[in-house]
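Progress narrative, work stream C.
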Amino acid sequence: IGDIHGDKDALVAVLRMASVIDASERWTGGASHVVQVGDVPARGPQTRQALDLLMRLEQEALLAGGRVHALIGNHEVGVMWGDLRNVLPAEYEAFKGKGSEQQLQAAFEREVESLRKQGAWPASAAEQAALRASWFERHPPGWVEHRAAFRPSGHYGSWIRRNNAVIRINDSLFLHGGISPKYARTTRSALNTAIRSELATVSDSPPPRSTELLGPIWYRGLAEDSGAAPASHVDAVLGFHGVRQIVI
């Protein structure tokens, strides 16, 4: 299953079409393996519901002898690093709870204090009002809870960072982006360990494998290069991982 992007209803439709869940959205897939190749968050209003469903089905499938593999995509990484350009107001709304406005006000006051320490807080009342209006427009109720949930220790952040970016099932390799020549001979274990480690210590300086364009989460060369990807590179990746096909 490809990019869900906050559309839980579509996810449910696909899972039901594949006969792995029932009308109550409970696992009926037995020993089946479902692979979701990343990008659950952003661009749609149902990110939270989609994540909750995948997290629950992961446990139900395991008990039935099956598996749900939720891989790490660039939007999982982006949201954890604070790239919120594609997060819709309705997505924040799903995280809104009692006391959201107070939490948002406290966050704004911390921002003001930080700007004052930097000497960047405007002197005029008009500029202060404009800055305040702009900040609250970009940070609606639910924003604080959303950011907390996607911290490395948060409810969703901690789940994402224990997932894999690259897996092999039988003769197929699954990942979000692709394997570039730079990582053609890097083991799945090394790639997954590096990415999980990077997501465990989110800071202001994103490390390479989870954000670089040649990494397995971002690389698009297998699909988007002008012309076909070099057969020699594809063959090298297939041979190194002992698989017949790459699913991206």
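Work stream C, second folded protein:
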Amino acid sequence: MKIGLVCPYNIVRSGGVQEQVKAIRTELQKHGHRVKIITPEPRDISECDPTDILFIGNATDFRSPLHTTVQVSASMNESIQRMLEEEKFDVLHFHEPWVPVLSRQILSRSNAVNIATFHAALPSTRMSRTFIKVVTPYTRSTLKYIDYFTAVSEVASEYICSLTDEPVTIIPNGIDLGRFKAPQKYDEDKEKKTIFYVGRLENRKGVKHLLRAFRLLTDQEPNVSLIIAGDGPYRYKLEMLAETLDLHNVTFTGYISDEEKIKYLQTSDLFCSPAVYGESFGIVLLEAMAMGLVTVAGNNPGYSAIMNGLGSVSIIDPKDSAEFARRLDLLLHEKQLRKIWRSWASEQLEQYNFPRVVAQYEELYEDALRKRSRKQPSLGSVLSETGQ
């Protein structure tokens, strides 16, 4: 198959959707398919490997109320038409097709099978609700061009389900289990323990609640340290809060590379992502689970869907500082519980392994192409209808 993966986000920067798109491309290519990523051209293009990437138009970053940085692309109708004629894709797979305007421009000209995947959860903030009202007419205008709808989780499907009666297939995000591996040995008896957070430093991520719970934890367990990796608009406020709380064993690393992230996941004792809302999935949780790192997570719907069954012991209300601190303490020190938790995590991970996830997309592509071929009239029927 010839497949195009349409990504509205800056392909140069790290991000959940970008990483998923690139991984899907790699896995599909392993299966012998010809795959290219179609994306607006970012300003920092020199940092990008252009192999199998088609840049269409220029783009401007826009921080949306859904807590994602999207790229609003300029109209490039002639370039899109030329690209489609040259590439002759069998399947076009649009990630977040609600993002203006590249996806709709391609959809309205596509002769391929069009697959849509929705990633984002819709926060229930006033600004987000206003934004959705504005973007919904635009989103509705794209639906008639889409053959199959998918979403990465139930919570991510809620928005599109409110706009169409068409079925939405849930295909989760994936993880490279060959890259994220638990260390062969782990010292449960080491005296000094480390809690690790990585992510964007913004209000919805709940890091301020982690700092307050950590203050209570260290009153009883002074040998625990906290590493906060990542950057964002709340970094200064969080650093000031750590100072106000008199926390001397908290380190803000700023942005870290993927290699550094893996190193921290390998050497830490507990991972914590206390996001309050706005999470449709939890790739960062899967990464920690794959590294054998016991995890504490906020009680938003996206995280709760992953941390099910025994994993629900990891779910906390970030705003309840006392209970938050008790759960950190429990999952940091109870050896038997940690052992059982790791066993549960190991069993859960296989469903998110990239080969399994991409196989579901591949099956969907093939099914859509079969249905498309059955709908197209044969040459014989056309001749018969015209009396030739």
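The radius of gyration is 23 Å. No further action is required on this item.
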